[in-house]
């Protein structure tokens, strides 16, 4: 693989293209300043304006959310995994029918594997623009987003209507639902009973891992973060590891499965038979199966990188602890 070919498999943080109309709450006050990024795969965006950087999926999707302080993402649910790690800022994650069942605050590097089937939201509670990186289970990311009823109702009051086809229509721009496409129905009271209301104590010990705990675990080998026998036990169709300066080997290796590299801290040199690239914090690199390569932190100081590898397991509901 030539350096030019490899560069097409790297999405640079500085080249990310945002979409400010990705979801139904794009006009709702408090949520109208958020930016959605679709990095690998089509993600779950409801807008035709969403830019997709790399369309081919490795069994999962990679995305990101950028938000200024006090901006929040409205309550929604997913059928497959939704994993976030905090790249920049300080974030509060909350969940439940009204977002009051439980919550946790995550700092930079912390990671959360939010259980499927519960309503969840998140907000930037820091003082600067923040960024969280996302891993979504499945090639089609679970088929889309399930919104809490009040989110759809609030959006309608501000001009956005979601069709049963999963597409958004802006009535303020004169758009309307196409003939034969009804609006997305609200979940009924009976349907809402199927959405659990776990407490903070139910979620945090089993679905949240702190960055500095993982760095300690990566002292001699990569820290297993998400996987069948990892710190956060789950089989979402992929595994997540944290690599640090102390755990990485400079010896080349080849993975027969798709691998995605997501630097958290420091600058990493990515070498393969055809050349060398530098990966920076916030970059995303899709390594093709079978490519022999090596990783080396290129400067002194803190260095960490999340490595996501497809497992071939079927994407679906979270393992219940």
Secondary structure layout:
Layout: H1 3-7, E1 10-11, E2 35-40, E3 52-54, E4 60-67, E5 72-77, E6 82-88, E7 91-95, E8 102-106, E9 111-114, E10 120-124, E11 130-137, E12 146-147, H2 149-157, E13 160-162, E14 168-170, H3 189-192, H4 200-207, E15 208-209, H5 211-217, E16 223-227, E17 232-233, E18 238-244, E19 259-265, E20 268-272, E21 275-279, E22 284-287, E23 293-297, E24 304-310
Parallel strand pairs: 2-3, 16-17
Antiparallel strand pairs: 1-22, 2-4, 4-11, 5-10, 5-12, 6-9, 6-11, 7-8, 7-10, 9-15, 13-14, 16-18, 18-24, 19-22, 19-24, 20-21, 20-23
Describe it for me?
The protein has 2 domains: 3-208, Jelly Rolls (Sandwich); 211-310, Jelly Rolls (Sandwich). Strands 1-22-19-24-18-16-17 form a 7-stranded mixed sheet. A 7-stranded mixed sheet has the order 3-2-4-11-6-9-15. A 5-stranded antiparallel sheet has the order 8-7-10-5-12. The radius of gyration is 19 Å and the shape is globular. The model has no long low-confidence stretch (mean pLDDT 95). The chain is mainly beta and 321 residues long. It has helices spanning 3-7, 149-157, 189-192, 200-207, 211-217; strands at 10-11, 35-40, 52-54, 60-67, 72-77, 82-88, 91-95, 102-106, 111-114, 120-124, 130-137, 146-147, 160-162, 168-170, 208-209, 223-227, 232-233, 238-244, 259-265, 268-272, 275-279, 284-287, 293-297, 304-310. β7 and β8 form a beta hairpin. It contains 5 helices and 24 strands.
């Amino acid at each position: 693989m030539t350096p030019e070919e490899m560069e097409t498999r790297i999405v640079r943080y500085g080249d990310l293209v945002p979409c400010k109309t990705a979801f139904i709450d794009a006009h709702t006050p408090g949520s109208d300043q958020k930016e959605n990024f679709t990095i690998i795969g089509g993600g779950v965006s409801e807008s035709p304006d969403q830019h997709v950087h790399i369309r081919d999926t490795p069994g999962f999707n990679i995305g990101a959310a950028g938000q200024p302080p006090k901006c929040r993402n409205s309550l929604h649910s997913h059928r497959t995994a939704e994993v976030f790690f905090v790249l920049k800022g300080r974030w509060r994650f909350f969940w439940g029918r009204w977002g009051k069942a439980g919550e946790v605050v995550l700092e930079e590097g912390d990671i959360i594997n939010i259980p499927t089937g519960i309503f969840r939201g998140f907000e930037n509670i820091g003082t600067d623009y923040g960024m969280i990186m996302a891993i979504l289970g499945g090639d089609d990311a679970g088929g889309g987003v399930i919104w809490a009823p009040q989110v759809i109702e609030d959006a309608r009051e501000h001009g956005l209507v979601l069709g049963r086809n999963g597409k958004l229509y802006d009535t303020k721009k004169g758009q309307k639902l196409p003939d034969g496409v009804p609006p997305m129905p609200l979940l009924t009271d009976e349907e809402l009973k199927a959405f659990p209301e776990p407490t903070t104590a139910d979620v945090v010990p089993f679905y949240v891992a702190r960055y500095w705990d993982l760095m300690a675990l990566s002292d001699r080998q990569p820290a297993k973060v998400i996987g069948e026998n990892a710190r956060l036990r789950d089989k979402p169709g992929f595994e997540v590891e944290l690599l640090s300066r102390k755990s990485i080997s400079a010896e080349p290796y080849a993975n027969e499965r798709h691998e995605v590299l997501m630097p958290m801290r420091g600058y990493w040199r990515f070498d393969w038979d055809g050349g060398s690239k530098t990966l920076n914090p916030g970059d995303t690199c899709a390594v093709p199966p079978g490519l022999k390569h090596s990783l080396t932190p290129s400067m002194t100081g803190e260095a960490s990188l999340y490595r996501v590898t497809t497992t071939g397991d079927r994407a679906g509901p979270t393992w219940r602890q």
